[in-house]
Task: inverse folding
């Protein structure tokens, strides 16, 4: 890898805290090698907003092609970009920045990653479907926006603090056209929507630890439904395992992580000729997970 780095090598990286378990450097560097891009991807662990401001200032003057942003800075990054794509504005979060002549253009590729993975891994198209999104943070916002743009029939946002779900629904509703959007409390109020949903997306961190409960009672889940848990790691979450036991189709978030990262490379390379190889990135992510199997979870 180091033999590739020279005086003209461009930089990309991930900003967040903590980054100890990030899979992105392995995924990205593997793709750059195959695509013969003279880029290198590095972790940029940033503790707080004061440091974030300093790092973003440096990014503007260094030969950066792009950044990924992860927790806890996806929302604040929205304010720090010079331009923000409509999808990221609607989601209320930026997870990808394209650096163009020192200017920062913000995107959100999480939602596109979700829809791409639903289609390729689950054979599921959101068009005309009833969907429940659990959570109302950055990832839930991105999911809701993409599912609306993919013409879901309805999107119900179920969140612990209902005010945040209401804010999200208010933000996306004007773009919703044919999609019915509503907010409910994550609890018994969500039961009817979950029971009748074609797709349930978990965009809360509940399930990251093996001791966690499921974010909803899995008695509400049954055959014919698709359950997508954004959490990824070595073992399936309880939500995924129990949904499968109950006859639903279910998967974790690794495919989405790969697809959102690959979409970022598609944006940075500005080429319609390049389609970033998802299989190469997936293999690199799986190799990293396998290497640390004994050391516990691996969530960004
Ligand atoms: P976030 O902005 O911090 O939002 C977290 C959401 O989860 C909030 O709506 C919060 O509710 C809810 N929540 C937190 N703890 C909860 C609990 N104990 N019970 C019920 N609800 C709870 O985080 P995010 O960036 O959206 O990420 C959410 C999850 O998605 C994380 O696990 C993250 O790793 C994963 N993710 C995966 C991918 C991927 O590519 N696979 C991409 C992005 C994110 P309140 O509003 O009430 O606090």
Result:
């Amino acid at each position: 890898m180091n033999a590739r780095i020279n005086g003209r090598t461009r930089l990309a990286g991930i900003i967040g805290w903590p980054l100890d378990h990030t899979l992105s450097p392995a995924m990205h560097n593997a793709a750059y090698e195959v695509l013969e891009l003279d880029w290198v991807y590095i972790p940029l662990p940033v503790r707080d907003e004061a440091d974030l401001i300093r790092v973003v200032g440096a990014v503007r003057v260094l030969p950066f092609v792009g950044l990924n942003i992860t927790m806890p800075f996806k929302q604040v990054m929205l304010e720090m970009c010079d331009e923000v794509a409509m999808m990221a504005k609607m989601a209320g979060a930026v997870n990808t920045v394209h650096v163009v002549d020192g200017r920062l253009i913000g995107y959100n590729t999480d939602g596109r990653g979700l829809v791409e993975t639903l289609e390729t891994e689950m054979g599921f198209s959101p068009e005309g479907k009833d969907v429940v999104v659990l959570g109302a943070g950055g990832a839930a916002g991105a999911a809701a926006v993409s599912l609306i743009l993919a013409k879901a029939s309805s999107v119900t946002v179920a969140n612990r603090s209902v005010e945040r779900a209401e804010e999200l629904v208010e933000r996306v509703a004007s773009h919703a056209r044919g999609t019915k959007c509503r907010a409910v409390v994550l609890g018994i109020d969500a039961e009817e929507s979950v029971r009748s949903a074609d797709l349930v997306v978990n965009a809360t961190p509940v399930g990251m630890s093996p001791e966690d409960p499921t974010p909803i009672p899995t008695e509400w889940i049954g055959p014919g439904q698709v359950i997508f848990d954004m959490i990824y790691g070595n073992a399936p979450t309880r939500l995924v395992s129990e949904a499968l036991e109950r006859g639903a189709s279910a998967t974790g978030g690794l495919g989405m992580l790969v697809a959102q990262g690959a979409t970022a490379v598609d944006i940075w390379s500005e080429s319609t000729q390049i389609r970033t190889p998802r299989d190469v990135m997936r293999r690199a992510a799986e190799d990293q997970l396998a290497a640390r199997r004994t050391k516990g979870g691996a969530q960004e």
User: Anything to note?
Assistant: The chain has two domains: 10-109+255-294, 111-253. The chain has eleven helices and twelve strands. Residues 14 and 163 are 30 Å apart (CA to CA).
